[in-house]
Amino acid sequence: MKKTITGFLLLSTISTLASGTPAIDKACLENDKRIAVELDLLQNEASIACNDAGNVSECRSLKNEIKRLINKGNVLDLINVDRDEDITDVVFFNCSKKVLKFNTLNYGSGLGLATNAKINFDKEKDAVTFFGNSVEYKLELATENLNDKKIISLDDNYYYGVRAASLKVDGVSKTVYAEDVRTGFESILFSYDSERRTHGSTFDSTAQVVDYVQLFTELATL
Fold this sequence. Notes:
alpha+beta, six-stranded antiparallel beta sheet
């Protein structure tokens, strides 16, 4: 059962790879490996819980989580931002459909309809801007040169790789702070197969296998 599911996910991702987007393809392939491992773990836990008559609630919960993960598919979660106490904005890339999406969770009314998103990448300033649903997030990336390679820094000061952030809603500037922004860079840029190696408190460049400049450049052309 689990080999069929994880194998299907991996094959579906490989079949969508486009040679013109190598950074996207690499990130999606590594993410698919993570999904496969997570599914295996969940299915093993569910097998144990569902064979125990006293764990009906846990069995149901694990089955629902497996279903959610399969339905979600291979998705790169780029950013997740708490706009305020009630609203969270999410930007993600669907690897199977090759589309960028923007979604808003309003804790009063629930999850909204995902709409197409756009990205603008300023290579010189290391700044990436996400557009969707009349909302604009501009992030100044925390970068550094390490071992003759420029990487996004994920150290104690910039854990999510963001140095500064700004927000506009319907063209009007709103307050947002870098610490409000949670990115998926730690998963997206690193190989699943490699251990997280550190250089001081910073991830070593040898483990950051997806080039962020190439990745955002490719995403900006979609």
